Amino acid sequence: MAKNFEIAVFEGDGIGPEIMEPTVALLCDLAQASGAYDFTFLKLPAGAAHYAKTGESLPAASLASAQSADAILLSAMGLPHVRYPDGTEISPQIDLRKAFNLFAGVRPVRVSEGGLTPLKMAAGRSIDFVLIRESTEGLFYTQGKGEVTHDEARETLRITRDVSELLFAFAFNLAAERKHQGRGSGRVTCVDKANVFRAFAFFREIFDAEAAKHPDLKADHAYVDATALWMVQKPWDFDVLVTENMFGDILSDLGAGLMGGLGLAPSADIGLKNAVFQPCHGSAPDIAGQGKANPFAMILSAAMMLDWLGTKHGVSAMNTDAQRLRTAVDAQVARRADVTPDLGGTATTAQAAAAIGDALLTQT
Ligand code: ATP
Ligand code: MG
């Protein structure tokens, strides 16, 4: 009997629905072909367009349905001209992060052979590491609440034992899973600035305590400045990097740059129970409705969802299918055929996604 998963779907704004529709279709095809798992998709209203219509950006009913779903798939939300009365952007994805305590921001950085990257890559070399950004505290703790007087401004760096323990346990589990899948060397690097800040020495101590529980995995430390250098000089050396909120914010954009752009950058925000999978890019209103949107970041985010669900529920066919999706996207990018204009091609969103579907049928 196929195991059924309920997936909350936020189609969102701008290009959101255009990239979500073919992604859901691919997931249905994979599930059907596999027979080992199955999905019930639950489309939920939220976002800037919904706010403009109803005055609500994330209705309570949507939040409740998302909370009880097995996973949340989100495309992109927000539109530049739709804002709350205080002028801030509509961003229900941030509300979800807070409401469900999604402490681990997972940003894979992958460049396969023939992939797009501004780096010179030797033949046969590929990049495949994961950056985990703590997403609930750190240097974002006082976000919008810092103390400012005429002469001085202060913000707080907050690192707590509870969140750090969860974060590092997550990082080591991910490294173990990647090693098991043959994707990583089983190494976790704690990225900090422990030479200058006591808070980061504290962060490092908690990391070391978690590392001691995983003698089968390698653990090391790196300062954030050196990490930025190495991400450019030798990114193929990394496996799993785990870091504080602000450092992760900055390094994940560097990671997207390494991959050759936003159209290929997936992400996940993961908590103890819930998880949101969404592309790193925004709703790209400048190209909405024109069939130009690149669906690959959304498709790669769906692959992350397959991996997460497959590992959590012991359905290995889902991990296999996640890898099949990545392989199909990599091959299409390497050929530069059936890719959208942002990757230098002429394909429409639908054509690019349909070619992935065709590749899945013929993959060996
Ligand atoms: P947000 O603030 O919501 O993160 P943003 O303002 O940073 O969004 P995006 O919406 O991500 O910006 O768009 C930035 C640029 O990248 C735009 O020119 C957009 O058209 C382009 N872009 C983003 N996503 C895609 C995509 N999937 N396919 C093609 N182009 C994209
Ligand atoms: Mg923006």
UniProtKB/TrEMBL annotation:
GO terms for biological process: L-leucine biosynthetic process. Its cofactor is Mg(2+); Mn(2+). Residues 6-356 form the Isopropylmalate dehydrogenase-like domain. SMART domains: Iso_dh. One of its GO terms (molecular function) is NAD binding. InterPro entries: ICDH/IPMDH, IsoCit/isopropylmalate_DH_CS, IsoPropMal-DH-like_dom. It is an enzyme of class 1 (oxidoreductase). Its EC number is 1.1.1.85. Keywords: Amino-acid biosynthesis, Branched-chain amino acid biosynthesis, Leucine biosynthesis, Magnesium, Manganese, Metal-binding, NAD, Oxidoreductase. It comes from the Bacteria. SUPFAM superfamilies: Isocitrate/Isopropylmalate dehydrogenase-like (SSF53659). Belongs to the isocitrate and isopropylmalate dehydrogenases family. LeuB type 1 subfamily. PANTHER family: D-MALATE DEHYDROGENASE [DECARBOXYLATING] (PTHR43275:SF1). Homodimer. This is 3-isopropylmalate dehydrogenase.
